[in-house]
Write a structure and sequence with these properties.
The protein is of the alpha/beta class and about 270 residues long. The chain contains twelve helices and nine strands. The strands form two sheets. It has a seven-stranded mixed beta sheet with strand order 4-3-2-5-6-9-7. It has a two-stranded antiparallel sheet with strand order 1-8. The longest helix is centred in the last third of the chain and has 13 residues, at about 200-210.
């Protein structure tokens, strides 16, 4: 089947396509970007409801077939490209836009990080992905699913699992359950007063990455790898943790984003 070499799984039933389309709440005044248009399974629904649709498809055969179909959809622009090589804001134009994508599982994280760079222009993103990954995006502190991707996603957006989708809804059927994840602004960046896509935000998320570097280690041991504490200044680090009201034996998955922010601001400058 065309597209399977790229890890694509296509929504096979009209009932599931309609159910997902209804959940997107598409309006006539909206611009939608579609990631991985496939055979146009969802493009048709987007075209019928939205003002403008930009559909992105990497597979040349699928793109060619879809280009023929799109002749009857005057509001659809087809781009044959790797989405990871595109500036989505430039593709969408100056207005805010919405995103729908049934994305190959193996590039879920790179696509999410691409969306993070465009978060200020995205009004909503709706992504079909592996349920296991979806659960990580929405994980709360204290959950074993909580990790760096949880914090990075929730820094930029408010994520929600809109629905679970069984393997039988796709052709070919994947071996795992999928989920439709909804991402909407704002994220926690607003609450902790760190502007998204700023130098401060980049440093903050790098810091969070260090906190999660070794999930089995305590926060104290992970943070010892920072250059500020390379000379064994454990006492200084313990004092920063105390001031941030974070127990030194805590692990990163136990912290709220507000606690990460307090720790980050307590670091030596």
């Amino acid at each position: 089947m065309p597209g399977t070499r790229l890890g694509q799984n296509f929504l096979a039933t009209a009932a599931w396509r309609e159910k997902i389309a209804a959940s997107l709440e598409i309006r006539r005044d909206q611009t939608w970007l579609e990631i991985g248009a496939g055979h146009g399974e969802m493009t048709e629904h987007l075209a019928a409801r939205a003002s403008r649709v930009v559909s992105i498809e990497l597979d040349p055969k699928l793109a060619s077939d879809l280009r023929d179909r799109a002749e009857s959809w005057p509001n659809v622009t087809l781009i044959e490209s790797d989405v990871l090589k595109l500036d989505l804001a430039n593709v969408a134009g100056p207005a805010h836009f919405h995103i729908y994508g049934s994305i190959p599982y193996y590039i879920t994280s790179p696509i999410l990080h691409l969306l993070f760079t465009q978060a200020q222009q995205i009004d909503s993103a709706h992504l079909v992905m592996q349920l296991e990954v979806a659960q990580r995006l929405v994980a709360k502190p204290g959950s074993r699913d909580c990790g760096y991707l949880s914090v990075a996603t929730q820094f930029h957006f408010t994520p929600k699992i809109a629905m679970r989708i069984p393997p039988g809804a796709f052709r070919p059927a994947p071996k795992v359950t999928s989920a439709l994840v909804e991402l909407r602004p704002p994220g926690a960046a607003l609450e902790i007063s760190i502007a998204p896509n700023s130098a401060d935000a980049n440093r903050f998320l790098e810091f969070v990455g260090t906190c999660f570097a070794h999930k089995r280690k305590t926060l104290l041991n992970n943070l010892k790898s920072l250059p500020e504490f390379a000379s064994g200044q454990t006492g200084k680090l313990q004092e920063i943790l105390r001031r941030a009201q974070v127990p030194p034996n805590s692990r990163a998955e136990q912290l709220t984003i507000a606690q990460f922010a307090r720790l980050f601001r307590g670091l030596p400058t």
